[in-house]
Amino acid sequence: LSRMHLIQVDSVQRWMEDLKLMTDCECMCILQSKPISIEKDEQNELILSSQYSTCDNLQLLLKRAWIISTELTRIAQKLEKNRWQRVHSMTVRVNCHVRSMINEYNMFIRNSSEETHQFEKLLIEKCSEFTAFTERCIQTEDEDILKSMKSCINETLTTVAQYFGQLIELVLTHEAQNLLRQIELSDSMYITETAISSLFSLTQEGDHLCRIIAKEGGVVTLFKICRQDCFRCLYPQTLRTLASICCVEEGMHQLEKVDGILCLADILTDNSHSEATHAEAAAVIAQITSPHLTFTQHLSSFLENMEEIVTALVKLCQEASSGEVFLLASAALANITFFDTMACEILLQLNAIRILLAACSDKRVVDTPYSRDQVVTILANMSVLDQCASEIIQGNGVQLLIEMLFEKSSSGNSAEVAACERVQQKSAVTLARLSRDPEVADAAVKLSCIPRLIKLCRSPTERNNSDSVLVACLAALRRLAVMSPDGLEDSDFQQLVKPRLVDSFLLCTNMEESFV
């Protein structure tokens, strides 16, 4: 039976391969938009049903665009290898996808611009020309002819890709404009909510779409919503969309132009707003102050509102009803401590260390390595202040930092593993900085910090083979060894403390190998 099944599948696949070369593009276009099977298999990304609801139309367009883009890349690869039969069959397929895409989006996009129609026409003509070129190539075996044809095909492929990119850009810009127009002009709460939801879906498709939305005034439009009390119920969704758009430089510039920081500060300090609204406002703050972004230097208005914002975020951490709310508020605080050192002094005055340490003992609020990563980041950045040590000791923070040295992923998920490494590294960094205070160093030694640091240095699996964790642990160990030299055995001192840091590092990175 299994052999029979294989033969049947093989026959169908062979028939479909032949069909691509034997039928006209127009026929293929009609066939292609009809689903052959509802079952998923490895080839089904190339067979898309056009029977989609209105809300899925953009997703269908983007999926179709992704397929065409992938196919064009694959054609270039096959062309390089002179695999003419494959080049032609794939060119026919791209032709079909382009025609289907244009037919589909013309059904749901109204009032397309003249420019869009011109690009549609140019693209279809160039695709037909492309198919005709590749068809001639499979009908000859003359190497000289094929060689001369290859440069023509390459040039045509480049032009197809260029027209295709410009057409997609125009269509997506048109759709972004329509959604923003709906948000600005509609009196209906339902239409506004639906448009914001669609806009958010667009932002999830990558930075390029966020740039399009920002250039079309998306940040300005959304902040208008956040300044109208009648739309309060839409604030969380609107702020979430803003956070996504502000991952690109264009979004940040727009935010600065419309005094977005002041609006966020007003929302965060207004106690009449829901916790969900405060949490999403914190998410926008976390996004715009991210240390990974290279374009935060123009956020001059942030400094003017920083004390208000930091105070509100500490309050949100203290009153958070869930892990998600705490994560967003603490992530914003962690980023702000990188953004400006004055934030650490404000946090100290607000008793933030006590609040954060108390939250860490509540598993309902701090329930993941991601949350602990934010807390230990704040502690590490605050530990440069001399007054920080006494606050840490009073809040039983030394024990918490040592517990963080044991952070392990429960799921094995790569993002969670990376978060655990950051927790280990930053807790070691914080201990190293705080141990300049004899009282902290003494507390750490009494809580068996030294044996754990030695284990992390000597056992690569304990630190998940992380070099950054190793360097931080070596630094912490050396600081504690100065304060409490009796806590180390001679072999540990000779290998981990006495040599130059780089020599101890090299010894530990090769340790697993040498033990074997």
From TrEMBL:
Residues of the Protein inscuteable homologue C-terminal domain: 64-516
GO-annotated cellular components: apical cortex
Residue ranges annotated for the Protein inscuteable homologue LGN-binding domain, each copy included: 7-51
UniProt xrefs under Pfam families: Insc_C (PF19427), INSC_LBD (PF16748)
Gene Ontology molecular function: cytoskeletal anchor activity
Any Gene Ontology biological process: establishment of mitotic spindle orientation
UniProt cross-references to InterPro entries, sorted A to Z: ARM-like, ARM-type_fold, Armadillo, Insc_C, INSC_LBD, INSC_LBD_sf, Inscuteable
Name of the molecule in the record: INSC protein
Gene from which this protein is expressed: Insc
